[in-house]
Amino acid sequence: MEGWKFTAPEVETVDNSLEFQPLTNINTLLFSSPTNSTIIATTIDPNNNVYLIGSFIGSMDNVASEDRDIFVAKLSAKGALLWKIHLHSNLNEVNSATGDDRGLDIFWSQQDQAIYIAGHTNSSLVETNSSGNPDIFWGKISTSGQIQWLKQLGQESIANLSLTAGMTLDSTQLERFQSLNQLSTGEIVIVFDTAGSLFETHALNGDIAALKANKTTGNFISGRQLGVETLSAWGTAQGITTNGAGIDMSTRIAIDGDKIVFAYHTTGSLVEPNGGGSQRDTGLIVLNPDLTIHTLSQLGQTTYNAWKAIHYPAGNITSADTPQSVLVNGPGDYLVVGKTSSNMSEVKLNADIFFIRYVNGNIQNIVQYGTTTFPSATGNEEPRALIKDPQTGRIYSTGHTASPLFDTTNGILKPYLIRVNENGEFQAGAQYGIDAATDLGTTAYYGVVIDRNPVVKDGRIFLTFNHDPLNNPGLSYEGLLWNIPAP
Questions:
Q1: Would you tell me how many other CB atoms lie within 10 Å of the CB of residue 419?
Q2: Beta strands 293-298; 281-287: pairing state
Q3: Are 169 and 163 in contact (CB under 8 A)?
Q4: 214-260, pLDDT tens digit by residue?
Q5: With CB atoms 3.0 to 4.6 Å apart as the test, which of 29, 205, 225, 413 could cross-link to 209 if both were Cys?
Q6: pLDDT at 193 over 50
Q7: Tally of CB atoms within 10 A around 105
Q8: Is the pLDDT of residue 174 over 80?
């Protein structure tokens, strides 16, 4: 009709350009009173919203933590707080969060348009925990901050697990969460360490375990433990004798197609004689989708002696070698980062960074950042994570050091990141040292990187660490989000 005019509604636009401040202190964003807070992990969605998980002692929205509580938060691409969750006893989804509760991993699922969280708790967070030892938990949260479900491997779930005839269930021992990921088929995969007999007979000290959960309900699907039965069956099939009596601990996991990949350290002889006697050896585990062993290798006496005969005859692995993270370069091609007190590929300087590249289960390369690579590395280096830029393919490793690797320092720990090639060989680096602190107009913070899940996005690296503005570690921790151009 004449005189009528249709006007299309304005299309809402989202400015998702990353414009965080180089340093963002989450205490002022999240908490209502001074707190001891720790950001453990981060993840970013396609709109550059940043999700954080961690734990704190203090108060959020004037609700005090009960011992140590869990927080989850979502920040916009510009660093503004969009929502926050405080997991405490007053929530409908939580029964009793009165103990030490730690959120330890978070990731964005493009498949489900949601985030998954996990950690461990000695509370009856969702199910009964009467032992006081940590149970693992996992959960799903919508992008608007609604908790879809929370699950705990507590007494009720354990009661429904069926073990092989003749086995005795022991769920009272600690379960220490390590990592969370998702298979292409959608199942949630959780890797943790246990001192109990959850899925089979415990092999003594500490066993590595994994479970799968349904992504829609969070319910337990299946589990596997590197205990007596699994190690015996695998060793028999390989024609070797395995000894899982040492302390076996895993790192965060990566997904290679339908396979689950993670590194570990052991004081036992899982595959071959321990290279340091009672010291820690590093190794690699690849699990099939049904959680059976696809690959199990150990950098022990046999493997290392064969490698050093060709590459570094003066080398040794008689001291502690501890992996921290693994990255998938391609099918069957994995890069592991960790810390060593051995002379793996050059003379050590206190505790050094190392990289090991595995191709189809075999060691392709070993790199140590000792006297030759980093002659200024006079302090203790603590690597934490490996990440790859999906746009450029560049590989980065994060951690902290008291050494002046790329910036001056006063002998206290500061975050660092380095860029490496697929063999782990050094290419470039940066450090939040005294000069960087001055440039940012901040004090020379003590900074410990705990984050094993940093993010590289649009040419910037998001790394979280704890700091103490008084240079008095352990008394006044605050979570800090640092983002800088990728070197």
A1: 18
A2: antiparallel
A3: yes
A4: 999 999 998 998 988 899 999 999 898 888 888 777 778 899 999 99
A5: 225
A6: yes
A7: 24
A8: no
**R_g of the chain computed on alpha carbons:** 23
pLDDT surpassing 60 at residue 166: no
DSSP assignment, residue 472?
-
Q: Given the structure tokens 């900074």, which residue do they identify?
A: 447
List the beta bridge partners of residue 139: 117, 150
φ, ψ of residue 162 to 5 degrees: the values are: -110, 125
352 CB-near residues (< 8 Å, 6+ apart): 339, 340, 341, 368, 369, 370, 374, 377, 381
Residue 123 · residue 129 · CB < 8 Å:
yes
The angle at the Cα of 445, spanning 379 to 436, to the nearest 5 degrees, equals: 85
Closest CA to 136 of 171, 164, 162, 169: 171
What pLDDT score does 89 carry? 65
CA distances from 17 to 48, 49, 110, 305, 387 (A): 7, 10, 19, 51, 21
Q: Is 314 left (phi over 0), alpha (psi -120 to 50) or beta?
A: alpha
In 10 A of CB 363, how many CB atoms?
18
